[in-house]
Specification:
By secondary structure, the chain is of the alpha+beta class. It is built from 12 helices and 9 strands. It folds into 2 domains: about 120 residues, OB fold (Dihydrolipoamide Acetyltransferase, E2P) (Beta Barrel), CATH 2.40.50.140; about 180 residues, Hypothetical protein af1432 (Orthogonal Bundle). The termini are far apart.
Length: about 350
């Protein structure tokens, strides 16, 4: 291959309109997922997702490809050096990978490699943590505030770096912190519109709704559900953390039950992982804000990662559609429709 393939290009570089079909490239990326599929002719192929902090892409690898066996045995979260050729399928970047090797610890430790691989919140984590504790201080009920403080006192370091999901939304280092603070901002703005919602209970439940993910996820480079996460899930893990803290704080039984209900029902639907359907004003309120910010998180990520040359993003499973990237004409100085 030419010297050009030795460039360590980012996903953003690769998706640039400057890359022509057939052009060779090289990149150091993180394997996020590899799954085995069966083609219509019953032949096996692999569908892989790889990425770095600038974005991700999928590619297919058939059994006659020299990298098939290596890729098949590569675990999620593994850093790899790959070489390939730029190709497009239905106008989407879908390269052909011709070489792939898993990086060892020495290569991974080279300056800049880890930082380039791991996607992280674009916001200042320290500022987000300060804002988070500011929201906790706004909780007027002593028992609820003590409960929230107790939980964060136990898991605060992990909360700062944990993603909010493996792939759907805010799926990057610090994503859970970003997601929670954004939800709290939304909560503050919407509470005056809904006086039936108890502010202290709603804010407490919102701040704690995904706390179980600090236990559910593990992995330095790519978050995956660990043994406990698979066996119990973040809803149950969060419920346990909150119940323990609430009893320690001697929170009134009715308030504790209502706070636990927010944790158990925040997923919104039973098929989405909720242990119960939201059945209090506060639980409905938190569940809706959670869904709103999760979806807007998908929107923000698509806007960040889609090249300016594209009109639409790739298909977003959580939205069940691609996203129109170009801004409204009026926002960019165009004339309103007649």
């Amino acid at each position: 291959m030419s010297d050009r393939t030795r460039e360590n290009l980012t996903v953003s570089d690769l998706k640039s309109s400057a890359r022509a079909a057939g052009e060779p490239f090289g990149a150091v990326l993180l394997v996020r997922k590899v799954s085995t599929r069966t083609a219509k002719n019953n032949n096996l192929f692999l569908l892989a997702e790889v990425g770095d902090r600038s974005g991700s892409f999928h590619f297919t690898c058939f059994s006659d490809n020299p990298v098939f066996e290596t890729l098949k045995g590569t675990a999620a979260g593994s850093p790899v050096r790959l070489k390939g050729q730029v190709e497009y399928y239905q106008n989407r970047f879908s390269p052909r990978i011709v070489e792939l090797e898993v990086l060892n610890e020495e290569e991974l430790g080279r300056e800049g490699v880890l930082d380039n691989l791991v996607a992280a919140t674009s916001e200042d984590p320290e500022a987000l943590m300060e804002e988070l504790f500011g929201f906790i201080a706004e909780i007027r009920n002593d028992g609820l505030r003590a409960t929230v403080e107790s939980v964060f006192g136990e898991i605060s370091p992990a909360f700062k770096t944990t993603p909010a999901a493996v792939s759907m939304h805010h799926a990057y280092r610090g994503g859970l912190l970003e997601h929670t603070v954004h939800m709290a901002r939304c909560c503050r703005a919407l509470l005056p519109l809904y006086p039936v919602v108890d502010p202290d209970l709603a804010l407490s439940g919102l701040l704690l709704h995904d706390i179980g993910k600090t236990v559910e996820y593990e992995g330095q480079l790519a978050a995956q559900r660990g043994r406990t996460g698979i066996l119990q899930g973040h809803v149950v893990l969060g419920y346990r953390l909150v119940r323990k803290a609430g009893m320690k704080a001697k929170l009134a039984p009715d308030l504790l039950e209502r706070l636990e209900h927010i944790i158990l029902s925040h997923q919104g639907e039973l098929e989405w992982g909720a242990a119960a359907m939201a059945a209090t004003p506060e639980a409905v309120f938190v569940s809706m804000i959670d869904n709103l910010d999760a979806r807007m998180g998908m929107v923000r990520q698509a806007l960040r990662e889609t090249p300016d040359s594209e009109e639409f993003s790739d298909y977003i499973p959580g939205l069940k559609a691609p996203l129109l990237i170009t801004p409204p004409a009026q926002a960019s100085g165009g004339e309103p429709a007649q």
